[in-house]
Amino acid sequence: MRMQTGHDSLEKVACETTVEIKNADGLHMRPAMQFVDVASRFVSDITVSNNENTVDGKSIMQMSMLAASCGTRLKIKAEGPDAQEALNVLRELVEDKHFDEPTPKEKKTQ
Amino acid sequence: MEIKKGIAVSPGISIAKSLVIDAEDYRIPRRSIQPSQRLTEIQRVKNAFTNAIDELTKLEAALDQTEGGKIKDIFAVHLRFLRDRNLKKKITDLIRSELVTAEYAVSTTMREIASHFTRVKDAYISERAADIYDIERRLLKQLLGKRREDVEHLTEKVAVIARELSPTQTAGFNKEFVKGLATDAGGRTSHTAIVARSLGIPAVVALEDLTEIITGGDTVIIDGNRGIVIVNPDEQTIQQYEEYNREFLALEHKLDEIREKPAITRDGTKITLLGNIEFPDEAEIVLQKGGEGIGLYRTEFLYLNRETEPTEQDHYEAYAETVSVFKNRPVVIRTMDLGADKFTQSKRFAPEPNPFLGLRSIRFCLQNLVLFKTQLHAILRASVLGHVKVMFPLISNLQEMMQAKFILRDVMEDLDEESTPYNRDIKIGIMIETPSAALTAFTLARDIDFFSIGTNDLVQYTLAVDRGNEQVSTLYSAADPAVLRLIRTVIQDAYKAQIDLSVCGEMASEPEFIMLLLGLGVRTISITSPMIPEIKQIIRSVTMEDCNSVARKILTMNSERQISSYLRNAARKILPEAF
Questions:
Q1: pTM
Q2: Which residues does chain A have within 8 Å of residue B84's beta carbon, measured at their own beta carbons?
């Protein structure tokens, strides 16, 4: 995990991290909803980008339009007082919990 | 100024501001607004979002915990979209920058998002486009629903413009303010045409792309005599039309003078002229126009102009109102004839693949006995107020007719038990509107009191033509030899069995068919009230001898075109001013 700490005051922390989509079905509607719900709990501005686009991590429309399939790498950027915490929780949701959905491996053994 | 040509389906001229109604089932055309309307349209979008969220929250709360799971997830996703500020902003930005209506902005934005999904390679994700369409419909429903309420609460005269009008939409019209109708789709016998004629307002259909070139609020001339619609006419055109309208009204007035005179041919044969109605308040108009009773009382509006199913009392009050106008003159109440519409399709069943051949009309009633009996109970109760007859639509075989009669007897027993008075000898009739009924009319006639030929459906089912489909509607013609042969069979079989017969379809209100129908033996005609004076005038101008010879001649002809032109010429000779 790459991390970058902002150099202004504590209120304006900006950091980013890159995560990989692990669940087999990718970032479809329900995972997008979970992501947006979690992101919306934080006051920091959160953006998510793939190679082409950067979108608002609190907008389900934009998040779902990323249409990130399994294996896609996304850069999450947070800016605000709780930026670091937001990134931790979001990374956990995407990579550790993989949206409470099976990974391709788990799906095969089901 | 733009002039569009369509099919004239209801006579008269109207000059009014347009009110455009879109439908969520069709693509919403791009429609511009004035800069001053921007804030109103943006507010409409905001309200639509708020109301859609309310609606969805209620639906979600009503969901059973056990069946929850998947559906709950879907609702939750939809709610997130509706609460997404980015989405709302995308839509309102479009209104601000492009000056388009709320409907168009919602539709284009949602479709743009959906098409983004369909382009994704991952099948699982691309299927999500369906969710976006769902959300689009939900928002449009709010926007258009409000528009429909607007039509119910009009305060100024308007011409209603739509892609197509459904019974649900027209049932809510405030008749005092709707002065004309014009639609992109439809034919001579479309629902729009029927409603316009029964309201006596001008209508033009089959205008193809009218809804795309018109903007709400534009002044529009609807010329229901010549089938022309003029959008944003110039001052000179408006003046010409005002003059033309005065002449037209003067001619109508002249026809009204024959109101008190009987419908008798020159050689003394009496024809009974009845009116077709849809709403109870039209009964008065039938009398004003010189109708001698009601030959077809359509009862569908009772089911379409309210959220819940009509109660027995709702039925009774509507029938009592109509019957009281006619006292002892006949009122033929036709039982519910719905099908291929919102009431039967979405309230009760998964949509049928082929609704015109599906569970509609009497078939629907025979499978929904509570609903059917409720209506029959009210009809019987109203039967003591005057001369009420009951008629079953779309009978296609003997069993169906016997079953319907059996259920009527059942309801009579219920009334006996409640000691509610009713007319035990009420006359029971059926519509002949399927080829199977026409071909077995001889058998059906033995167990029924009267026939009424419904030519609209009979033509559609005989010729296998959807009358609302512009691409094949030219094949739809009552002058087709196959249709005429079926009609002749029915008339002869009714005559042999000594039962009453009437014709209640559009055919009977078209001047060129009157001589033929009389010549074939028809003595009772039921038509929309605005046509009564004109048809009476024709009857009073012909002799039975002429009519018989027209009918004999027609029966030897084998092509629709030949028959049509012969009928037109014959009628023109008798009554040149009507053509």
A1: 0.64
A2: 59-61
∠ CA B455-B456-B457, rounded to 5°? 95
Single out the residue in B131, B150, B169 at which a domain terminates: B150
Query: pLDDT confidence of A2, banded at 50, 70, 90?
Result: very low
The ipTM value here is 0.85
Q: pLDDT tier at B529 (50, 70, 90 boundaries)? A: confident
Q: Tens digits of per-residue pLDDT, B536-573?
A: 999 999 999 999 999 999 999 999 999 999 999 998 88
Structural domain spans, chain A = 10-102
pLDDT (0 to 100) of residue A42: 95
**Alpha carbon of B482 to those of B442, B464, B465, B469, B520: distances in Å?**
18, 12, 13, 21, 15
> Is A7 one of the catalytic residues?
no
Residue B528's beta-bridge partner residues?
Answer: B276
Q: How would you list the strands of the sheet with A45-49, edge to edge? A: A14-20, A73-79, A45-49, A54-56
pLDDT at B272: 97
**B95-154 residues touching A, CB cutoff 8 A:** 113, 116-117, 120-122, 124-126, 128, 131
Residues B550, B450 share a domain: yes
Q: What pLDDT is attached to residue B168? A: 64
Residues B145 and B158 placed together within one structural domain of the fold: no
Residue B341 and residue B278 share a domain = yes
In chain A, the N- to C-terminal Cα span, in Å, equals 30
For A10-102, which CATH class?
A: alpha beta
The active-site residue out of A14, A24, A28, A75 is A28
The DSSP 8-state label assigned to residue B184 in this structure reads S
